Structure formats: structure tokens, C-alpha cells
Amino acid sequence: MTIFEMLLQGLLHSLTPVNILAATVGVLLGTLAGVLPGIGISGTIALLLPLSYGMDPLTAVILVGGIYYGSQYGGSTTSILLNIPGEPTSLITCMEGHAMAKKGRAGAALGIAAIGSFIGGTLGIIALTFFAPPLADLAVRFGSPEYFALALLGLVTLANVTGGSPLKSGLMVMVGIMLGTVGFDPVFAAKRFTFGITDLERGIDFIVFAMGAFGIAEVLLTVSEGWTAKEIAKVKFREVYPNRQELKRSKGSIFRGSVLGFLISLIPGPSTFLATLASYVVEKKVSKYKDEFGKGAIEGVAGPETANNAGIYAQLVPALALGIPFSPAFALLLSALMIHGVTPGPLMMKLHPDVFWGLIGSMYVANVLLLIFNLPLIPLWASMLKVRAEFLMAIITVVTYVGAFALNNSIFDLWLLVIFGILGYLMKLANYDAAPVTVGLFLGPLVERCLVQSMVMFNGNFMLIFTRPFAGTMIIIAILICLVRIVVWAIRRIRSSRENSTTNPADTVTLS
Q1: Which of 133-137, 212-216, 461-465 has the lowest average pLDDT?
Q2: Where are the transmembrane segments (predicted)?
Q3: How far is the C-alpha of 24 from the C-alpha of 363, rounded, in Å?
Q4: Which of 155, 300, 418, 450 is the most exposed place for a label (fewest CB within 10 A)?
């Protein structure tokens, strides 16, 4: 049978009333989980997984898969409306999406996020359908050296993602890396920077920091500025669709985001998060409206959101074709298959073609359902902005606290939430951005773990990493980027000193 015939059969399996209902419930619950910051996709899937025990294997995996797809849509909602990343991959959307909301373009930001997500998701599913076998072969070749080089390149490239001072951004990245070292050493399992606190042994949760530095800090900033400091624009359904100029500016961003999101996310690990950051950097470089970035550039919403949704389908390649989960959510997705006697891996397409192709077909269905549900419901989510500021801040605080506690059922995480909230607030006052800290906190542990594993592999000889073509190339690119930034910084300092010496000549003293 050809791919088209197998895909057609998969679509027929996924379009049964039971499976459509499972997809609908899954995407709605997933969107809700993405909207509520910190609730967590893994926690949502884990809670609903027991409900799938009596289901058909395909129906069960469609339900679980729908939750995951929906979360990627829902994460953009709180990022744009409330400046709280519902998911790590929605972090970049906070910067431009929330700035657009402040300018009264929340509806357009939410609309372009939904449209870009749909297009990126659709292109990602098509690529997954036709290129899964060769892409799986490519993904399996990556080892610790490649992961280390990729994460290192990500830190170097994305350190100045906010476009502020390179020195400040680099300092914030280092702070994030330092926070990422809290917990157990990956080699000797020795405790580091725990100060005798048992709860710190498991490390600092990325989501807890993000919710504190963005959510609680935003609440504190709003309180300090006063309830009337911000004007909240009304968002109606007719305002959801972007205007002609915004659509024109977003076309290229959506295309580039689809390609970047899928290709980068083929590499197992936190590559979808990296893809959204890379998309933002690319858009900032190629845009004709560079001065709008940080102030509400629609390209900064369209590109990363498209990359995010294209990337989640790319990560299904190693998960389904190799049976290797690279995130807790994918581990739960694969466990849903194994519970029903379906072993994910290279033989899944041969032994269980109805489940494999039914799941692929359900992705097309779920993507359409997400667009149908999200666009009409955008005014409903945007109506949260109409709530009086004091009530809105209270809701944000409660939801953030509930989400932080739900991550690990830990009171200690609530204390961390408060500390990071105060830290984020102080950083805002000092004109420092929290985004580079999150980059360091998210990628730092990966860099350390993969570097240690690479050193063990090469018997302590770091230079042998350059014998791996992909890893060596990425490290060389990272070094070149650092050198270029140093040269550019030196040239700017020299020009600045010359201009100062020309415009402010030394005072001369005339003796008479």
C-alpha cells in the first residue's frame, strides 16, 4: 500500500464518532491546560491516562495526543493577554504578544497565533507523514556531543534574544546557568548549592521560575504603578483577524517558522523551545521593522508560534519511529500505547498500522478542531482583560500559585515563586530582562550533562568532539558568533570614544 492509501485509511479510522469525540475532548482539555500557567501538560495527561484503560488503543492515544497538541495552542493565550507563559515554548510570545495587547492589538496577536499555529501544524504533519522514516534515521544519529554543541550554540546565539545590552543579557544568561546547577551533580550525584534544604536537591523547576519572574513580577509591577496605570483594549470577534498589513508582514514569518520549527525540533531534547527562540532571532534579523521588536512586532508572534506547532510534530518522529521519549509528555503518550499492547518503535507501522496511521490521521483532525475552537473562543479569553485590574491581578496570583503547587505538590515551590517574583520585579525596575535567565536555566543543565557524557565518551579529550562533523561545525559557529560580537562591540566603543572626543573637546585654559 502507498502512503496515500495508508493515510486515507488512518483518516477513516480517526473520523469515527468515538475518535472525533476523543479528539475534541483532548484538544479542549489541552488548550485549557496550556491557558492555565503551570498546570502542566504532563500532569493533565497523567490524570486522564487512567480514563483510557477501557478505550480502544487508537481512541486512547488520540485523546492523549489531543491534550498535547491543544496545550501548544493554549500556551499563547496567557502569554499574550497576561504576560505569563503557559508553556516554556510560549516564552517568546510574551515579549511581542503582550506588547501588542498593550497597544490594543491583543485580538490580532491571538488571531495570528492561531493562524500560524494551524499552518505550522499542518505543514509539520505533512512533513511527518511523508518523511518520517529518513528523518528518524537522522535523529537517531545524534549523541551527547551533538546535544552539547546544539545547546551551546543556543546559549551563544540566543543570549541577546531581547535585543538589549549584550553585557546585561550575557550576565543574565550566566545567572540562569548558575540557577540550573542547583541540585545533584550529574556525575558524582553530589549535592550542589542546596544549603541543607532538602527541597533544593531536585533542582529549580523552570516553570516555577518563569511563572514567578513573569507572572508574579507583572502583578507586583501593576500594583506598584497603580490600578489605572494600564489601559486595556476591548477585543471583539471582528478584531481577531489581523489587518492586511499585519497579514502581509506575517506571511514570511509563518513560512520560515514552519521550516525552522520542524527541522530544529527533529533533534531530540528541548529543541522545540530552541526552535521558537531561533525563529524570533531570524525574524528580528530579516524584518524591515526592527525598531518595533520589543514593542509589539507581529513577526515576533507569528514566527515563534508557527515554529512551536510545527516542532511538536517533528518530535513525534523519534517518539513513534524509535520508541524513545525525550520529554515527560511524550513518555506518557508512549505509555498510553504500551498500556494497550502497542509497542512504539520501528515495528509499530508493520504490526499496528491501524493505530499508527490512525494517529497520523487524527493529527489532521485535531489541528482543524483546534482552529475551529480557538478562533471563536479568542474573544472569550480576551474578555479577561475587561476585568478590573485588582480582580485580574488576584486571579493571576491564585492561578499562578495553584499551577506552581500542582507541578510537584510542594509548598517550597510557592516560596520559590515568591522569591523569583520579587527578583523579576526588581529586574524590571533595573531594566534587566528575565528572558535570558530562562534561556540559561533551561539550556544550562543540558549543556553540562551532555558535556560530561561527551568527556566520558572521549576519555577527557575535548578536542575529539571536533571529529563529529555536526557537533564540531556547531561549536565553530558558536565561537565565530562570539568573536564577531566582541569585534562589533570593540568597534562601537572606539567609534563612541571618537565621537565624544570630537563633540566634547578638552577645555583649554587661556592665560592673559
Answers
A1: 133-137
A2: 20-39, 46-69, 108-135, 147-165, 171-190, 202-221, 259-282, 319-343, 355-377, 389-408, 470-491
A3: 12
A4: 418
**Domain extent for 101:** 3-490
Three-class SS state of 193 = coil
- Residue 183 included in any domain: yes
Distance from C-alpha of 342 to C-alpha of 10, rounded to nearest angstrom: 16
**What is the average pLDDT across 452-467?**
88
Which cell numbers hold the place of 281?
Answer: 532571532
CB 302 within 8 A of CB 116: yes
Is a pLDDT exceeding 60 seen at residue 227?
A: no
Model confidence over 240-285: pLDDT tens digits? 677 788 788 888 888 888 888 888 887 655 667 778 888 888 888 8
Q: Comparing 21-30, 81-90, 453-462, which segment has the lowest mean pLDDT?
A: 81-90
User: Which cell numbers hold the place of 253?
Assistant: 514569518
Distance CA 466, CA 407 (A): 39
Are 97 and 109 spatial neighbours (Cβ–Cβ below 8 Å)? yes
Q: Judge whether 508 lies within some domain.
A: no
Amino acid identity at 52: S
CA distance 312 to 195: 38
Residue 512, domain member (yes or no):
no
Give me the pLDDT at residue 234, please.
55
**Greatest CA span in the chain, whole angstroms?**
103
Res. 399: pLDDT tops 50:
yes
Whole-number Å distance between alpha carbons of 343 and 334: 8
For the chain, what is the domain count? Answer: 1
Backbone angles phi, psi at 392, to 5 degrees: -65, -45
Are the C-beta atoms of 85 and 37 separated by less than 8 Å? yes
Q: Is the pLDDT of residue 378 over 80?
A: no
How far apart are alpha carbons 320 and 387 in whole angstroms? Answer: 44
In three-state form (DSSP H/G/I as H, E/B as E, the rest C), the secondary structure along 13-57 is HHCCHHHHHHHHHHHHHHHHHHHCCCCCHHHHHHHHHHHHCCCCH
pTM above 0.85? no
- CA–CA dist 209, 218 (Å, integer): 13
pLDDT tens digit string along 66-102? 888 887 777 777 777 777 665 667 777 888 888 888 7
User: What average pLDDT does the structure give for the chain?
Assistant: 77
Helix 435-457 to helix 271-286 angle, to the nearest 10 degrees? Answer: 120
All 3 cell numbers of residue 89?
Answer: 515554548
CA distances from 431 to 60, 166, 217, 284 (A): 48, 13, 13, 21
Tell me the mean pLDDT in the region 395-409. 75
Polymer length in residues for the chain: 512
Which three cell numbers, joined as nine digits, stand for 148? 552539547
Q: How far is CA 428 from CA 280, 297, 371, in A?
A: 21, 20, 35
